[in-house]
């Protein structure tokens, strides 16, 4: 069984769930909209530029989780899924997942975005498992702190290696689909690295290495000239 690994934000989703959750909190009046949006946008731009301090960002992004009960967070996330996330799942993304599913591959999402946001999205997409940044939970509430290694850049490789050991899996004939140059450490490790609607840095790298470049933004999967 080959492993088919997928980044989530701006890969399987036509948008960034982490950033959009922040926007959703603003729209719901659960954070100070003006100041929160400024910081949310700053971190997103730093991520795209490859200069994000992941621990600083997680301190910011996980804090709102600590301010509400699990029940309220669950209700909020259901609304977030309905209003924001499901419209961002394109037919072509579902086609790609189904292609690997029919081959008998094991479908795994790996994402820097925290598990609270992404686990319901993984269930919606019908993948076999997800590796995401874990938010600490104590006494059935989020603490606002990160638990373990953030699933970002080299940390994404570390988290995958832990998962492979635990699950008895390996990267033989593995695939990894991503849009971001932040995922180059993992793209370099798999048998079949695929750039999906890639940023400029990843586009240049993919072309230099002869990696396939796909777009999942429309009704059908489009192969772009690498």
Layout of SSEs?
Blueprint: E1 3-6, H1 8-12, H2 17-27, H3 33-49, H4 54-62, H5 70-85, H6 91-103, E2 106-114, H7 115-125, E3 129-138, E4 141-147, H8 154-167, E5 175-178, H9 184-187, E6 192-196, H10 200-209, E7 213-215, E8 222-224
Parallel strand pairs: 1-2, 1-5, 2-3, 5-6, 6-7
Antiparallel strand pairs: 3-4, 7-8
CATH architecture descriptor: 3-Layer(aba) Sandwich
Residue share in β-strands: 15-25%
Kindly report the CATH topology.
Rossmann fold
Q: Which class of secondary structure composition applies to the elements?
A: alpha/beta
The helix tally amounts to: 10
Run of helices and strands: EHHHHHHEHEEHEHEHEE
Distance between the termini: 28 Å
Structure description:
The radius of gyration is 17 Å and the shape is globular. The protein has one domain (3-224): 3-Layer(aba) Sandwich (Rossmann fold). The mean pLDDT is 96. Helix content is 49%, strand content 20%. It has helices at residues 8-12, 17-27, 33-49, 54-62, 70-85, 91-103, 115-125, 154-167, 184-187, 200-209; strands at 3-6, 106-114, 129-138, 141-147, 175-178, 192-196, 213-215, 222-224. The protein has an eight-stranded mixed sheet, sandwiched between helices. The chain is built from ten helices and eight strands. With 226 residues, the chain is α/β, with parallel strands linked by helices. The two termini are 28 Å apart.
